[in-house]
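Chain A, query sequence.
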Amino acid sequence: MARNPRRNEGKAWSPSPERSQGGGPGRGRPKPPSPDWLWGWHPVAAALANPARGEPRRLVATADRARQLQAEVSDSLKPEIAEAAAIARLLPQGAVHQGVALKPSPLEPLTLAELADPAEGVLVMLDQVTDPQNVGAIFRSAAAFGARGLIVQDRHAPTFTGALAKASAGAIDRLPHARVTNLARALDELADLGWRTVGLASDSPEDLATALDGRPTVLVLGSEGDGLRRLVGEHCDVLAKISMPGGFDSLNVSAAAAVALYEATLRDRNRSR
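Chain A, predicted structure.
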């Protein structure tokens, strides 16, 4: 990795705020932080350990974290050394960076066929789930329960950086994903590959526990406010609800994903015995 010419080996480097260019009233004001940073120990360590990523574009760490990265990830890493407050100035306000931040090479998605063929296990498809915290939490649950991967739409999914990566605790680099243009067409392609699709809908008369049968399953979850779109729901093999005897009629989408993944992977494990 190329060294930053402003960094002195073994000494703390404090980056100056980046300035806007050109004249006018905005001249001299700090630029807003770049949106393509990762921060926090688990997201950064997972990204650096992911062979699917290229060379990091920039890696900044406190002296203690730099030593930890070299011990636990790769001794060839040469981070820029900075104080914690200097790292915070590179990131959005309130970012809990834990002493390390990374501008990684982009995380390239798989094609749908690469992700889904052969049909085996459980996939998760997100229909316009846009909150980064929710998407990150769903990645984390999917990785924890052994799902094959996630499928999102090109135009209506947040970037896999920043708060999303932090909420995933590194799962975005441990679990593959595919981006598709049209979810309904993707569901048809998945059906041709041998997948059964189960859409979560709180108004469905069928319970998720009975809708799952242990076959290769795609769990389809809708947006935080509107749920599944009509056309996406029509392309699912079955719609099902999570039974909630406590009186609530819906869950946050990331909580619903965790419950559905537990149910689906439990049946998948029982079927494989």
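The first strand starts at residue 38 and ends at 39. Confidence is low (pLDDT under 50) at residues 1-26.
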